[in-house]
Amino acid sequence: MSRIPKETIDNLRDSVNIVELINEYIPNLRRVGKDYTALCPFHSEKAPSFYISPSKNIFHCFGCKAGGDVFKFVMLYDNISYPEAIKKLASRAGIIIKEIDEEIPADKKDVLEILSATVKFYHKYLLESEKASFARSYLEKRGINKDTIERFQLGYAPEGNDFLNQSRKKYSQELLQKSGLIAVSERNGKPYDFMRDRIVFPIYDFSGNPIAFGGRTLKKDVQPLYLNTPDSMLYSKSRSLYGLFQAKSGISKTKKVIILEGYMDVLMCHQYGLDNAVAPLGTSLTADQLKFIKRFIEMALLIFDSDDSGREAAVRAGELCLENDIFCKIVSLPEKMDPDEYLIHNGREAFDKLVLTGVNPVEFKAYLFTLKNDISTPENKSKFIKNALETIAKVKDQVFRHEMIKFISQKLEIDESLIISELRKVSFKKKIGFQDKSANPTAVVSTIRSLEEEIICLCVQNPELIKMVNLEIFNDERCSHIFPLLNQLNKGVPFAALADTLDEDAAKWFMQLAFETGKHNSPKQQMETLLRDINAQQNEKRRKELEKEVIPMLDGKIKSDPVKIEEWTKLGTILKGSGGHLTK
Ligand SMILES: [Zn+2]
After folding, report:
1. How far is the CA of 410 from the centre of ligand 1 (A)?
2. pLDDT tens for each residue of 447-460
3. Does some domain include residue 543?
4. Does 422 lie in the same domain as 378?
5. Domain that holds residue 33
6. The 50-53 sheet, strands edge to edge
7. 189 C-alpha vs ligand 1 centroid, how far in Å?
8. How far is 571 from 545, CA to CA, in rounded Å?
9. Which residues surround the ion ligand 1 when the cut-off is CB under 5 Å?
10. How many Å lie between the centroid of ligand 1 and the Cα of residue 332?
């Protein structure tokens, strides 16, 4: 394993002109003031909302919110990893990248070795041991063939402490515990095999190293049915996906991922040539898992069990996709059927046809609702809208969001504007910045910024103004976090390098702010106005808070507090002086 020094990355980023780079991919960039614009290559659109800032060396799409530096552009466009993007741009610039060899901690190396050896041990046991014959026939009965057993290195963990007894000759107990394969009994302090008497499913990382095991018991009286080795220095359950390593090329070929519920479903899909199938590991899907696969896919297909809990899980997973800006389709299976059973009984062709019937999460919710309710009554219409808007509020892509509003409007025969105004209420409650795209065709104009964001934006454009602003004025956490960092711009740190120090969501938000929305003839004057407005806004807020107490005081309903009354009166005078009350 090796690492590219940060300095090299920063220098390389600086040396690439983002306008020239993107122009190689999308010709016909159009100049708008200091920036360039084009139709976004990452979502389909008719009017350009994709912007490039040569001065900050970044790009941002106001439609799909894709954005970042030169590396990010190449990653997204060419569908490659961060290190690959660095290497690609380096070779384009004729620079040779020196990688620093990073020592893998000795522990880690040993744990990797133990896990690899254990995969072989369990696998051999499954194939050869007399004691695993019932496991072999179980897999055969479930329709899992030899190739699949081989490809996924399925195994069997014997009863008792066979594994421990074998491996303690070679490894220390501490290391074995670190690998997650040995646990220590709370009752008597003795070590024992974590996986015993179970079919085991090795879990691999993206590079193909085994990092953990899932295990299924075949005994009726043993709980739980499925068991995972615990999180370790190599393995995090909420970040890993079963089958991802084997699905890697299938996913990048089809740009789609099939997300299923269980190990058996994944195995069966691969066996039937659907080699882009994965599953979370015995828990519900997580944002981390989605963020990881997002870069490789255009669409996620969610195929969960057809019972109530499976449907609920599908809705949750679908919403999580929308929140992470991933298009997805939920595929419904016939009642009481798992994906693997469906494949066995109906074959690949029928499965492919079934996948085509997949619907997006909003449509799926509508379908579930109509299964149990008559949608034509006013009560149910209202109930359904609330239910659907919960999901629509999570949609990041504005075009898609608008389409969903249209869908509901047509389904219920209700005016779109009414649904939009209801959505605003939901979005406001959820503090998701709702931007009314339909009323404002140009996305840039519709990007409403708070006063605090305007101030940050102005500081980014004119770093010399930073000293006019006091950190205390910020209530928005994102603003108060970024503001102290802005001074680095005065010290010559390039904007893109500064954005690179933030986490992904913060960086996106920050880059969006970096694009000017209006022309200011005098930035200093503009800043003074903003500071005055924000001060007035905060005074107004404080006065309203005080008013709740002061009015009852003046009415003699509660005990009078002269200090509060005076502050309230003073604020009133100040606000009048500053041009009347603000009604923002
Ligand atoms: Zn876009």
Report:
1. 27
2. 467 888 889 988 98
3. yes
4. yes
5. 2-101
6. 30-32, 35-38, 50-53, 58-61, 67-68
7. 57
8. 12
9. 40, 42-43, 61, 63-64
10. 30
